[in-house]
Amino acid sequence: MGGLADAARGVRHRPLRVASRKCDVSKRKITETGKGLDARDCEILKETIRDFIVSGEPVSSRSVAKSRGGSLSPATIRNVMADLEDLGYLSQPHTSAGRVPTRAGYHFYIDSLMRSRGVPARARRQIEETLREVLPDATHLMVSASHLLSELTQQIGIVITPTMGETVLKAVSFVNLSGSKVLCIVVSAGGFVDNKVIETSSPVAREELVRVSNYLTDKFAGLTLRQIRDQLLRLMAEDRAKMDRLLADAIEFARLALLESEHPDVVVEGTAAVLSRPELNDVDRVRRLLGTFENKAGLVRMLSQLIDGPGVRVVIGNDSDLTSDLDFSLVATTYGVGDQTGAVGIFGPSRMQYQRVIPLVDYFGERLSQVLAETFAEG
């Protein structure tokens, strides 16, 4: 995938508050960007998109006529489909083939024609149980959230972890794993636990780890990670020859465990869920999909640019470099408490069940924010 730096060139979408939007094609005219469609046009466009989402095959006028119970002839529907193609809502892969939705067609369908489904009670229970089961472990929470999103949608689940700059430290501890690998456990003032494996320049004795843990907790408890960073940067600028071993080790461990924790990370789960789709029937496309997730820092920047406000964002095809190369869609929303915000969403072929996926992502983000708020309040 090329052009990570160009991610923000795509269309910026207004937030979709899907719970309150209703489908209404009863009006004589429905317009978008000056393009007029009457009620019949809208019904045929809606039927075409719904058929394509289900079948994955170009939709013929005969197929639409059959699904409408013969109320319109195939010839009439074919003429309407040709008009919809001229307006940019449908395209025809081959002369003899049926039609498929374009990016503009999908957006018009989502904004004006689609009747959103509510989130099923079973899915709501799954979300609630999963989120509460893994709290207050931040690492497990993000992995579980991404996995559950993938499981519920059969798409790729993506979670961007919150920016941690305003997290208030309660305690930090280090535990020897093996060799030079050390597990760092950071506990926030709200009781949120974040685990991270760091690698030291050489093996460190258990007693030294305890001393460093106690030193950092005593010195920095009650400060935000941003305040800790500023103090550490000042200490790191001092003459290291004048530092004792404890302070030198504490600075190094804090740099690895705390400074890097301030930057958001991305968790991706469920890539296998989309590999069986017809859209990924060649090796080159699979390779491009896997390559999308190799540059995590670039992916975080790209997603953060695309998801920059409240509500659900839907990014389709040529809207951005992230989705255009594979003709995928991103459906995502923000979550968080106060200044600690991240994003959750799904990523997959543009032929997806938007009427089910959009409300689910919206609900997931709201519940994740509420559960985190309750956790911090209890702390």
Fold topology:
Blueprint: E1 29-32, E2 35-38, H1 39-55, H2 61-67, H3 74-86, E3 90-91, E4 100-101, H4 103-113, H5 121-134, H6 138-153, E5 156-160, E6 169-178, E7 181-188, E8 193-199, H7 206-220, H8 225-237, H9 245-259, E9 266-269, H10 272-275, H11 283-292, H12 296-306, E10 313-316, H13 321-324, E11 328-337, E12 340-349, H14 354-378
Antiparallel strand pairs: 1-2, 3-4, 5-9, 5-12, 6-7, 7-8, 10-11, 11-12
Helix pairs in contact: 1-4, 2-3, 5-6, 5-14, 7-9, 8-9
Characterise this structure.
The protein has 379 residues and is α+β, with helices and mostly antiparallel strands. The protein has three domains: 22-113, Orthogonal Bundle (Arc Repressor Mutant, subunit A), CATH 1.10.10.10; 121-163 and 264-378, Beta-Lactamase (2-Layer Sandwich); 169-262, Enolase-like, domain 1 (2-Layer Sandwich). Helices cover 46% and strands 18% of the residues. The strands form four sheets. A five-stranded antiparallel sheet has the order 9-5-12-11-10, sandwiched between helices. The longest helix is centred in the C-terminal third of the chain and has 25 residues, at 354-378. The protein is elongated and about 85 Å long. Mean pLDDT is 82; it is low at 1-34.
Compose a concise summary of this entry.
With 379 residues, the chain is of the alpha+beta class. The chain has 14 helices and twelve strands.
- Low-pLDDT runs of 5+ residues are 1-34
From the alpha-carbon coordinates, what is the Rg to the nearest angstrom?
25 Å
**Can you tell me the CATH topology of the largest domain?**
Beta-Lactamase
Coarse structural class: alpha+beta
Largest sheet report: 5 strands, antiparallel
CATH class of the largest domain: Alpha Beta
Question: Approximately how much beta-strand content do the residues carry?
Answer: 15-25%
Q: In the residues, how many domains can be counted?
A: 3
The CATH superfamily of the largest domain is identified as: GAF domain
| Strand order in the largest sheet | 9-5-12-11-10
Averaging pLDDT over every residue, what do you get?
82
Which overall shape is indicated by the principal axes computed on the Cα atoms?
elongated
Total strand segments: 12
